[in-house]
Amino acid sequence: MKLVILLRKDLKMQTGKAASQCAHAAVQAVLKSDRKKVSEWLNKSAGKKVVLAVEDEKELLKFEKLAKKEKLTTVLIRDAGRTFFKKPMLTCLGIGPDKEDKINKITKELKMLN
Questions:
Q1: 2-107 has which fold?
Q2: 0.90 exceeded by the pTM?
Q3: From CA 113, how far away is CA 111, in angstroms rounded?
């Protein structure tokens, strides 16, 4: 079990901004998920989370569509545009928590954020 967060590289967010956007995605994904999956994720994998990089909004939306097709829980995070950005902006996508192999099926080509 794991939860994956896809973060846009093209936005070049400061570390703190990127971290807060990922935190929003993680919290919202857990709140939206089936309680049994959340319990299994916490108890069997200690709440494993992975942040992967996507190039831009187009790629972010592509992975949202793929995840939904696999019936995975998804949450798109839209920053309100009050601080770092001048307007509302899609920043990241939370997927899961769910079985690793199910998530890996769609995210295996992506690299960890560096």
A1: Bit1 (3.40.1490)
A2: yes
A3: 6
